[in-house]
Amino acid sequence: MPDLLLELRSEEIPARMQRKAAGDLRKMLTDGLVEAGLTYEAAREYWTPRRLALDIRGLTPRSKDIREEIKGPSTTAPEQAVQGFLRKAGLSSIAEAHVHSDPRKGDFYVAHISKPGRAAEEIIAELVPGIIKSFPWPKSMRWGPASAKPGSLRWVRPLQSIVCTFGPETEEPVVVDFEIDGIRAGNVTYGHRFHAPGAITVRRFDDYVAKLEAAKVVLDADRRKEIILHDARNIAFANGLDLVEDEGLLEEVSGLVEWPVVLMGEFEQDFLTIPGEVIRLTIRANQKCFVTRPQGAGEDLSNRFILVANIEANDGGKEIAYGNGKVVRARLSDALYFWKTDQGDLPDLDQLRESAAKFDLDLKKPLDQRMARLDHLNVTFHAKLGTQGARVERIKRLAEELAPVVGADPALVARAAVLAKADLQTEVVGEFPELQGAMGRKYALLQGEHASVAAAAEEHYKPQGPSDRVPTDPVSVAVALADKLDTLTGFWAIDEKPTGSKDPFALRRAALGVVRILIENRIRLALTSIFAKAFANFVGGADQSSDLLAFFHDRLKVYLRDQGARHDLIDAVITPQSDDLLQIVRRVEALGSLLDTEEGKNLLAGTKRAANILAAEEKKKTLVAEAVQPALFREEAEKKLNAAVNQAEKEAGQAIQNEDFSAAMLALSVLREPVDSFFEGVLVNDEDQAVRANRLALLARIRTATDQVADFSKIVG
Question: What sections of the protein cross the membrane (predicted)?
Answer without folding.
Answer: none
